[in-house]
Amino acid sequence: MFDGFAFDRLFIGGEWVKPLGGGVRPSIDPATGAPWGDVAFGGARDIDRAVAAAKAAFEGPWRAMPPWERAALLRNFADLYATQVDALAQIETRDNGRAIRESRGDIGLHSQYYHWFASLADKLGGRTIPMDDSVHAFTTRHPVGVVGAITPWNVPMMAAAWKLGPALAAGCTVVLKPAESTPASSLALAKLFEAAGFPPGVVNVVPGDGTVAGARLVEHPDVAKISFTGEGSTAKTILKTGADTLTRCTFELGGKAPHIIFADADIENALNAATGSAWALCGQSCALGSRVLVERSIYDRVVEAFRERAGRVRVGMPLDPATHMGPQAHAQQLDKTLSYVGIGRDEGAQLVAGGNRIDRDGLTGGYFVEPTVFADVRADMRIAQEEIFGPVAAIIPFDGEDEAVRIANSTPYGLAAGLWSSDTGRAHRVAARIEAGMVWVNTYRYIRWSTPYGGVKQSGWGRENGLEGLDPFLETKTTIIST
Ligand code: NAD
Fold first, then answer.
1. Known PROSITE patterns for this protein (predicted)?
2. What's the CATH code, domain 258-441?
3. Which residue among 87, 168, 210, 236 is least packed, with the fewest CB closer than 10 Å?
């Protein structure tokens, strides 16, 4: 379906159009540092066109369509998506360097997210409210309108699925703006929406600079809601930009998840999850357990296991199915990761594995970095407080539940946490005290379309997925009738 597909057009109002602003730019393959294709970049005028198309669709065919027909279209799309997993995975891996085995695994699940939200489209009823005998009160639920979906570079297709699935099921129309360094897969997504038969303007895709296209989407008076995934600092800018229009926002932001391993845990399972999570997506995922909190009696064993397993990670070209870990997604992220290695050393943490850019074995020119492990990390060090977003594990010893909880809660973030213990009482006690939107016990990063996902503190506002994931795209109207 994507053979010969050109990424040099925007998808607006059901048409493939040349950008009015921005132009066409090369997209860089992070495995080589060289361009792999040309992609259309829109400017403010393109966003205006896209919002106008989304508004016309919202007020026209999309609103008029019964919810079961909307659901059927979304199911068509989901079925088509399932047939294109390999092609989409190749495009995403080309753009962000994620190992193809990871891209396939993740993208292979997305059609089920779309199916699940499709199944809810005709079940969004309200409720009746008891009043007195002469008054009848009830609620109805309505789509908020045009949604601006702004996505990050680490998981562009997943972020799109988590936003477009519920937005379309709720009856909203969408303008999707992907991140600068990974725009291609979102244009491929537009091609699938077109092929699935969506009315023009229901889904529009405009890659572009965040400070230009993204900012225009946020300030546009006809955009009812921004669904954003990215950095906290960008979310704060979005709040200021959207202040005049009081645009509703939900935010999926960064994390510094603690992975807490008690001495009574199944250590082998805990290690498999903790090491796997430290280096998945080359460390570029918000919920990875980048802080590993280890009870002191098993501390040396865990540090040694991390050191040894870091050496076994197969770093390589991301399109090679044998590769575990590809490059960092762009040059700035590579610099950021390496700078944190320096910060960790300066702070006095012990570097037990990795720490270097990889510049050998055919990987020259790509943004490859070694799986990295710091031991003897203190909770107040910057490498334990700040989101690095690279394959850098910070191992911190603790004594007892109280200290584990204190360290776990000591960052500004609160997205996710992992906890390993064979003591059920302890698991409940500690899970209840951890400040995070998600706590996994004796498992890690297991999520599905039905499980709400999102953070507390500076990790976000609102939830994606689950029934809660629909709420941000709906308004409740209360009607009270005196008879
Ligand atoms: P980013 O904030 O730099 O960019 C995200 C998006 O915002 C991009 O599309 C960008 O173009 C756009 N943008 C930038 N400036 C803007 C502005 N002024 N107005 C409107 N839009 C603007 O984030 P990133 O570097 O692409 O992504 C990495 C971050 O995303 C990390 O912090 C990571 O933890 C977070 N993340 C969170 C989740 C989650 O579900 N909580 C999932 C994935 C990534």
1. ALDEHYDE_DEHYDR_GLU
2. 3.40.309.10
3. 236
